[in-house]
Design a protein that fits this description.
The chain is mainly α. It has 5 helices and no strands. The protein has one domain. Helices cover about 70% and strands about 0% of the residues. Helix 1 runs antiparallel to helix 2, helix 2 packs parallel to helix 5 and helix 4 runs antiparallel to helix 5. It starts with a helix and ends in a 21-residue tail after the last helix.
Length: about 180
């Protein structure tokens, strides 16, 4: 009975992780599309209707906010699909057992580092939120921008953790995750 409950809980957690990957993918993609559309609108207005260009000054700031969020949301995705910068010459010259041990150390160091940076980012969010500062053209609280690194590093830390416990393979070893069309959980 206990094994059945454990398996059910594990499957639920795996589904939640897959769902999170799907949400990350669609939010990031949507932000890219919206940001691109806003830039196109800004160029059209500045070129064809320069009289109204000042009315669209908020687009530059909104696009900067979106770009920061895109970068940090995509960081976890890129780690999961094996697109982060890495030195792969070691794959040819090191024995597989040593390579697995090195990768475990890399995952532990990556996990600890990401959790530490997320902690520092959270402290920065709290500090900036306490100042009450708002952005000049959008008028939104600036701490929203500072939340992105905190969320992004937590998502990368999650990916390192999932590799450590064996729920995710390193890079593309076992094909893409389910949310990228690699199978269903």
């Amino acid at each position: 009975m206990t094994d059945e409950r454990t398996n059910t809980a594990t499957r639920r957690l795996e589904r939640a992780v897959e769902w999170l990957g799907l949400v990350e993918r669609y939010v990031t993609g949507s932000l890219v599309i919206v940001m691109t559309g806003l830039y196109v609108l800004n160029i059209v207005v500045r070129t064809l209707l320069p009289i109204y260009a000042s009315k669209f000054a908020w687009i530059d700031e909104a696009a900067r906010y979106m770009m920061v969020w895109i970068v940090f949301l995509a960081a976890g995705i890129t780690l999961e699909v094996g697109r982060h910068v890495s030195v792969d010459i070691s794959h040819k010259y090191l024995p597989p057992r040593l390579l697995r041990a090195i990768f475990k150390v890399i995952d532990v160091v990556g996990l600890v580092f990401c959790l530490m940076v997320a902690h520092f980012a959270l402290n920065l969010v709290i500090f900036v939120a306490g100042t009450g500062q708002v952005s000049p053209t959008l008028g939104v609280p600036t701490y929203i921008l500072y939340i992105a690194p905190c969320v992004g590093f937590l998502l990368v830390a999650l990916r390192f953790f999932l590799r450590l416990i064996g729920w995710r393979a390193r890079g593309n070893e076992s094909g893409p995750p389910a949310w990228l069309g690699g199978g269903h959980i």
